[in-house]
């Protein structure tokens, strides 16, 4: 199957999960992330703001704010790039952006990729080496390619989104680990 076909199928499958399961499994995944040493040891975290049937992230964001970490969320500049923007309050600092995703308000300024210690990466599908299929914009591929050497990356996904092997193109970046409701998968192939 092509990436486009995989993306379409994965989207349909994920959108068929009932809301109760999304909430329940997301709680497990978020707790596993918050108890992971890469999270505990990070000062600056970059976490996507979940929408629809994505693994929810509000628990991770709230926990990181409570722990006095610098918490950044994505701002997408369509067709150009994605930025990491620090927020301190979910209620005040976010507004509805493109594609029905909450984004940081325009007056909030981004920080550089080199300042991030941990990125929580979304995906429609992940394989055992941390390669992924996203929404097809290439935003995460571009972003992950610019991180500092000390930065860690964790993909979060439901177990139903894990496959053996995905097609990989030259520009595709993998994550270092994937956390699902059942396990932590450490990537063996190192491209990050
Ligand atoms: N580092 C890069 N520099 C320039 N263009 C890139 C880069 N990475 C990806 N792209 C562009 O983005 C397009 C979409 O990439 P891909 O199909 O891998 O999407 P994706 O991984 O699902 O998206 P995302 O990273 O937003 O989740 C590619 O066809 C490519 O043209
Ligand atoms: Mg890609």
What keywords describe this structure?
192 residues; alpha/beta; Rossmann fold; seven-stranded mixed β-sheet; three-stranded mixed β-sheet; 6 helices; 12 strands; binds adenosine-5'-triphosphate; binds magnesium ion
Provide a descriptive summary of the structure in words.
The protein has 192 residues and is an alpha/beta fold. The chain has a single domain (3-186), classed as NagB/RpiA/CoA transferase-like (Rossmann fold, 3-Layer(aba) Sandwich). It is 27% helix and 24% strand. It has six helices and twelve strands. It has helices at residues 3-15, 19-34, 37-40, 58-66, 90-93, 139-144, and strands spanning 44-47, 70-77, 81-87, 94-96, 102-104, 118-121, 125-127, 132-133, 152-156, 162-163, 177-179, 184-186. It has a seven-stranded mixed β-sheet with strand order 3-2-1-6-9-11-12. A hairpin with a 4-residue loop joins strand 11 (177-179) and strand 12. Helix 2 (19-34) packs parallel to helix 4. The longest helix has 16 residues, at 19-34. The chain is globular and about 40 Å long. The relative contact order is 0.17. The model has no long low-confidence stretch (mean pLDDT 97). The protein binds adenosine-5'-triphosphate and magnesium ion.
Mean pLDDT: 97
Fourth-tier CATH superfamily name: NagB/RpiA/CoA transferase-like
* CATH architecture call: 3-Layer(aba) Sandwich
Biggest beta sheet attributes: 7 strands, mixed
Under CATH at level 1, the class stands as Alpha Beta
Structural class: alpha/beta
Q: Percent of residues in helical segments? A: 25-40%
Strand content: 15-25%
**How are helices and strands ordered from N to C?**
HHHEHEEHEEEEEHEEEE
Radius of gyration: 15 Å
Q: For the largest beta sheet, what order do the strands appear in spatially?
A: 3-2-1-6-9-11-12
What general form does the structure show? globular
Which small molecules are bound? adenosine-5'-triphosphate, magnesium ion
């Amino acid at each position: 199957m092509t990436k486009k076909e995989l993306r379409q199928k994965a989207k349909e499958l994920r959108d068929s999960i009932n809301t109760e399961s999304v909430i329940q499994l997301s709680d497990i995944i978020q707790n596993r992330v918050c108890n992971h040493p890469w999270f505990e040891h990070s000062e600056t975290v970059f976490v996507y703001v979940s929408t629809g049937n994505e693994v929810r992230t509000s628990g991770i964001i709230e926990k990181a704010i409570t722990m006095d970490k610098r918490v950044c969320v994505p701002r997408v500049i369509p067709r150009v790039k994605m930025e990491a923007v620090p927020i301190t309050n979910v209620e005040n600092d976010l507004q509805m952006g493109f594609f029905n995703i909450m984004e940081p308000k325009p007056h909030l300024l981004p920080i550089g990729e080199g300042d991030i210690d941990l990125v929580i990466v979304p995906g429609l599908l992940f394989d055992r080496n941390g390669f992924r299929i996203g929404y097809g914009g290439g935003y995460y591929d571009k972003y992950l390619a610019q991180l500092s050497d000390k930065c860690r990356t964790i993909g979060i996904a439901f177990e139903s989104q894990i496959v053996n092997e995905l097609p990989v193109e030259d520009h595709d970046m993998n994550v270092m680990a994937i956390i699902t409701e059942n396990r932590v998968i450490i990537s063996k192939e190192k491209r990050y």
